[in-house]
């Protein structure tokens, strides 16, 4: 009888419509991975095996297979949104437990405790204080303290065609020197331990000796000591004739009680002495210019935002221009992703069928990279799904027709006299 075949076909068609409907319903779900219904035939076996003349007895749904193809990447402008381009899943911790689960949904945000979360699931990775240990990433720095400047590296170009100033550079004075007493000057902003800014001013004075310059320094409005200049001597190629020892600036006691400079005596406080490394300074005919400037201090700052690199480093940005590493995101890949168990909320859990979890930083091993300020769209193609829906509908109608035809045949047999 054809009833059994028709009924099995109706069940299979209904399951296919369920799968198609779920795919269509999640066409706009970020990180969603579509599924497809897979079928197998049913065959009756006799005591002596399957006869070549035996007809099949229907079909069954053998599996609903997940399809982990890449979805389109859409830019969002939200710095905490992340998309995985390539293989791998974000590793997140289930709320209230230590269980690690997996997702492709990168719509992250900060909760009230500073954890990076998605629907309550906490994003995990390596933290600066525990490298190699997977734990939830937390932004606990609402501000960053000031750091006293310890050293300055300043390389300039002094003009080779400059003439000796007509006014002698002054002796110990508390006011700025006469501009006619030096050839060039530049200022560098430095910071003390409280984040207060100060100015270190460098004055370059051409001497009567060929290729020779004297450098004077001044800290804020402190008295200048003309007796302690640093001499720079240049060779015929415009380079320093030899290494120059760093210029030491003893700033004395700061009015605000702060300190500046390195902690050479290791007492926990800066020693109020700055150094300026002028190696790299040149003497060419071009105009005076600052070619290289590096300082290591900064004022205090507040958190202004977060950024994520394609390698998965989450960094906090502060108003003083400083960047601090919050953590390193990890991605988890599986030998058989189709073996993962979907749990809803765009979450999968590992199973023995999926294989062992392979944890890597983005771009390493077999995992992809991260694109920040973007999300991965659902991999559903609506056109294909609508065609599949039509096919499943016709499949259902055809199986219903076989049942109807079988019923007509039975009715004919019953009516025989």
UniProtKB/TrEMBL annotation:
Residues 371-416 form the Flagellar basal-body/hook protein C-terminal domain. The keyword Cell division does not apply. One of its GO terms (cellular component) is cytosol. Residues 160-298 form the Flagellar hook protein FlgE D2 domain. It holds the Pfam family Flg_bbr_C. InterPro entries: Falgellar_hook_FlgE_sf (IPR037058), Flag_bb_rod_N (IPR001444), Flagellar_basal_body_rod_CS (IPR019776), Flagellar_FlgE/F/G (IPR020013), Flg_bb/hook_C_dom (IPR010930), FlgE/F/G-like (IPR037925), FlgE_D2 (IPR011491), LlgE_F_G-like_D1 (IPR053967). Residues 83-136 form the Flagellar hook protein FlgE/F/G-like D1 domain. The keyword Plastid does not apply. It is found in: Bacterial flagellum basal body. Residues 6-33 form the Flagellar basal body rod protein N-terminal domain. It comes from the Bacteria. Belongs to the flagella basal body rod proteins family. A flexible structure which links the flagellar filament to the drive apparatus in the basal body. This is Flagellar hook protein FlgE.
């Amino acid at each position: 009888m054809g009833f059994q075949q028709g009924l099995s076909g109706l069940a299979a068609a209904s399951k296919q419509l369920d799968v198609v409907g779920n795919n269509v319903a999640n066409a706009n779900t970020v990180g969603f991975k579509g599924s497809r219904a897979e079928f197998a035939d049913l065959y009756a076996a006799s005591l002596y095996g399957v006869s070549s003349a035996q007809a099949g007895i229907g079909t069954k749904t053998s599996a609903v297979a997940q399809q982990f193809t890449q979805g389109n990447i859409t830019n969002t402008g939200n710095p905490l949104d992340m998309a995985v381009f390539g293989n791998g899943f974000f590793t997140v911790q289930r709320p209230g437990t230590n269980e690690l689960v997996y997702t492709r949904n990168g719509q992250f945000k900060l909760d009230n405790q500073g954890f990076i979360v998605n629907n309550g699931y906490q994003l995990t990775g390596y933290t600066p204080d525990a490298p190699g240990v997977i734990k939830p990433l937390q932004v606990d720095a609402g501000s960053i303290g000031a750091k006293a400047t310890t050293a300055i590296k300043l390389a300039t170009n002094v003009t080779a065609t400059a003439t000796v100033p007509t006014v002698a550079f002054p002796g110990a004075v508390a006011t700025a020197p006469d501009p006619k007493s030096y050839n060039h000057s530049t200022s560098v902003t430095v910071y003390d331990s409280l984040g207060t800014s100060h100015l270190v001013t460098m004055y370059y004075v051409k001497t009567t000796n060929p290729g020779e310059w004297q450098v004077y320094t001044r800290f804020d409005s402190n008295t200048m000591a003309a007796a302690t200049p640093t001499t720079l001597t240049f060779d015929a190629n415009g380079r320093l004739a030899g290494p120059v020892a760093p210029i030491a600036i003893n700033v004395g006691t700061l009015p605000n009680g702060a300190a500046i400079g390195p902690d050479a005596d290791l007492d926990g406080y800066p020693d109020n002495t700055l150094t300026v490394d002028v190696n790299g300074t040149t003497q060419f005919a071009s105009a005076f210019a600052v070619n290289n400037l590096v300082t290591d201090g900064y004022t205090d700052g507040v958190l202004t935002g977060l950024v994520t690199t394609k390698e998965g480093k989450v960094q906090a940005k502060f108003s003083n221009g400083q960047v601090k590493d919050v953590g390193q995101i990890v991605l988890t890949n599986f030998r058989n992703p189709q073996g993962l168990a979907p749990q809803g909320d765009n979450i999968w859990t590992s199973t023995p069928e999926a294989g062992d979890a392979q944890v890597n930083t983005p771009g390493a091993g077999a995992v992809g990279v991260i694109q920040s300020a973007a999300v991965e769209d659902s991999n559903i193609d609506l056109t294909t799904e609508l065609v599949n829906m039509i096919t499943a509908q016709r499949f259902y109608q055809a199986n219903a027709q076989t049942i109807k035809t079988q019923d007509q045949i039975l009715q004919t047999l019953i009516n025989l006299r």
